[in-house]
Amino acid sequence: MNHVASRERIVIVGGGAGGLELATRLGDTLGKRGRAEVTLIDKNRTHVWKPKLHEIASGSMDMSAHEVDYLAQAHWHHFRFRIGEMTGLDRERREVRVAPYLDDEGREVTPDRVFGYDTLVLALGSLSNDFGTPGVAAHALRLESKADAERFHARMVNACIRAHAQTTPLRPEQLHVAIIGAGATGVELAAELHRTTREVVAYGLDRVDAERDIQVNLIEAADRVLPALPPRLSEATLKLLDQLGVRVHTSAQVTEVLADGVRLEDGRRLPAELIVWAAGVKAADFLKDLAGLETHRSNQIVENG
Question: Does pLDDT of 19 surpass 80?
């Protein structure tokens, strides 16, 4: 009696740039030929390339032109997409547990589920690392997802409208933005905000003087912006930021994030209505307690071999 060999079950958790690219390539090769069953799991319905989030936050990008629908991509490229957030891993049974997916009104769309695998790829990406700095969770925004970027953009526009509507003088923190971390995300967000805030004000908010009232502070603990890149690029970027009117603070360690500003190690306090934490990276917190996997201090899984 002939038996048909079961197909390899490949499960990829995380639909960021790496996970989506891998699922697409494996689907176009192994999935299309029926040699493997490729499944991509992500907690969102769509993918936006993370380096583009600062453009969504500033309002300079048409999101629909850069958003990839996972279900459509799966259909076109011969893999399966399942929505939900990974909550557990059973390495002995080779199973991934995924939490229920709820809609915006809190109603359950999919239940708690378990997916079996023969090969598992964890492509969960990185999160910003606040290094335990007080006040970050309560008062700072992060740019880790499309929702984060949209939230920042809404707050920025509302801040401009509020300032235009009020009859009293602006408070010290009003229309001031503090961006903590002068890596690529922080630098690009600072540059984009210079343009887009002026565009927002130009739409009839004539009681706000963009040059006088709007201020962007870029704060970096290292001694230069873009510290991971060659010094010549840092110098050129600093000149551009200076021309745009962005106030750059290097060798400036943030010790506390407040409701209306940030406190620096040297005692200075920079007032700010909008605060973005864009410094440092780490892996998802739940990885450090996941199925006995060895992790680094930043929750990254230690590779063997």
Answer: yes
Q: Cβ distance 277 to 257 under 8 Å?
A: yes
pTM: 0.73
In the numeric block, which tokens belong to residue 111? 């239940």
Inter-axis angle of helices 184-202 and 231-244, to 10 degrees?
Answer: 20
Whether pLDDT at 59 is above 70: no
The phi, psi pair for 35, rounded to 5°, reads -90, -15
Give kind and range of the element (H or E) at residue 53.
helix 53-58
Alpha-carbon distance of 143 to 276, in angstroms, equals: 8
pLDDT in tens, 92-140: 999 999 999 998 889 999 999 999 999 999 988 777 788 889 999 999 9
- Residue found under tokens 């440092």: 280
Structure confidence at residue 129 (pLDDT): 82
In three state form, how does the secondary structure of 149-217 look? HHHHHHHHHHHHHHHHHCCCCCCCCCCEEEEECCCHHHHHHHHHHHHHHHHHHHCCCCCCCHHHHCEEE
CB 214 within 8 A of CB 157: no
* Domain boundaries 128-281, corresponding CATH code: 3.50.50.100
Query: CATH 3.50.50.60 occupies which residues in the chain?
Result: 8-126+283-289
**Burial (CB count within 10 angstroms: exposed 0-12, middle 13-18, buried 19+), residue 270:** buried
Q: Span 8-126+283-289: which CATH code? A: 3.50.50.60
Domain with CATH 3.50.50.100 in the chain: 128-281
User: At residue 68, what is the residue type?
Assistant: V
| Residues facing residue 47 across a β-bridge | 68
